[in-house]
Write a structure and sequence with these properties.
single chain; alpha+beta; three-stranded antiparallel sheet; flat
Length: about 180
């Protein structure tokens, strides 16, 4: 019920949104409960939603700044294995289409090595970079629309979590 009211409000507000002032922003992230407290302009009370609820709501996600959307994606990716243990296996509905008139970069594809290929609309040149490098560069991440920034964040979170797990795993050696 809370999500439907929020969806209708954000859908209405989306048409007058500007890139410099997004409607929603992160106020707090509780990693122990996997929830995010957000504040949206026009709504007085803060809204508490799970990562799963935010990720599965493209209207809500598109009303964050690219940086906040990337961080939501990062935490979602970092705790993805825990989330699917709780909720079961599910897919995330993502649309990676971009409007070249408004955005400066657009994701084209993900390579087998885990790098993203993206197109710079201003120069019409394709670039390749790892998602963690894109996310670490604030001047670069803001050039993606929030949905794509969230996807970059998810890939970065998955990569970081995989790296932590591989470092903590025990290495077995053959002893003769």
């Amino acid at each position: 019920m809370k999500t439907n009211i929020l969806k209708k409000t954000l859908l209405f507000l989306k048409f007058s949104r500007t890139r410099n002032s997004p409607f929603c922003q992160i106020e707090d992230v509780d990693l122990s409960k996997n929830i995010v407290v957000i504040h949206c302009r026009g709504i007085d009370a803060p809204i508490t939603l799970s990562f799963h609820e935010i990720i599965n709501d493209p209207v809500l996600l598109s009303n964050f700044s690219s940086i906040h959307a990337a961080w939501i994606g990062y935490y979602y990716g970092k705790y993805y294995k825990e989330l699917i243990k709780e909720k079961g296996n599910y897919s995330v509905p993502f649309s990676l289409s971009s409007n070249p008139a408004h955005e400066k970069n657009c994701i084209l594809m993900l390579t087998r090595q885990g790098n993203l290929v993206y197109l710079n609309h201003a120069t019409n040149v394709a670039h390749t970079a790892h998602p963690t490098r894109i996310m670490a560069n604030m001047n670069l991440i803001i050039r993606f629309e929030p949905m794509q920034a969230c996807y970059i964040g998810i890939l970065s979170g998955l990569y970081k979590e995989k790296k932590v797990i591989s470092r903590s795993s025990v290495q077995l050696t053959l002893v003769k």
